[in-house]
Please model this.
Amino acid sequence: MIALASATLAAATVAAHSLNIGWLPPGDTPAERKVAAHTVESYLSGMLGMPVHVVTARSYQDAVAACLSGSTPVAYLGAFGYIQAHDRGDFVPMAQRKDGKLTRSVFIANVDSGVRTLEDLRGRTFAFGERTSTSGYVMPMYFLDLNDLPARGTFRSSTHVKGDRAVMSAVLDFKVDAGVINDKYLNRMRREGRYKPGQVNIVWESPPFPDSLWCASKTLGAPMLDRISNAFTSLSPDRREDGPVLKALEADGFYRPRHEQYGRVHDAVLLEGLLTD
Model:
């Protein structure tokens, strides 16, 4: 029923000669997010030859639900969200940032906690990211299981906080002994001076895996899917006019990934029992 509804609504969207895309524009203020949304809407409208409208979801799960209902047949999702949309609604990859091709989950600990290895996590307190986060929850749970450290039997207690910065704050403020964070945000916070390397131990870095990407429903049809993918992958930092668009998309360029690249994430989602009807 979900696939049928998605197909019907997506077809209606194209028939109406407009396209809704699910995306949370970057920015610290509503004004900044509005500028980013307008920049991308204008660019994609010109490339696709139809009005494009950004639809902002309140959460990852709302974004996936909007995809499955057909209201946003194109969306920027985390790898976990993409696997959900692919398995339930036949979504396929469109574009992924070149600088975001692979990411890692990094387990960190307060230096005063004494946690230096994964084994040291036994009996400790721990902070995960949100339950919908690929790098903050899904993949860390998967890698803990692979290392015979299932969360339920390993930690004295664990909690979920909203985002990587909240994980770092919980570790630095002694609210937990350790936590897990996306490697790119960890590096960004170090550059921004939000923590000093001597304040935390890097306990363990996971193998790399793909994360967020633009994806779209197959119901849009192959010609439209190709146009959407080309709109992203044709952006170049060497063209001045593409600069504002790439800045709004927080990217230095895009490539078109294959679904097979998400095999490990799919395995993790299945192992952790996170695909529900």
Observations:
- The mean pLDDT is 90.
- The domain at 105-205 is CATH 3.40.190.10 (D-Maltodextrin-Binding Protein; domain 2).
- The chain is about 40% helix and 20% strand.
- The CA atoms of residues 33 and 82 lie 23 Å apart.
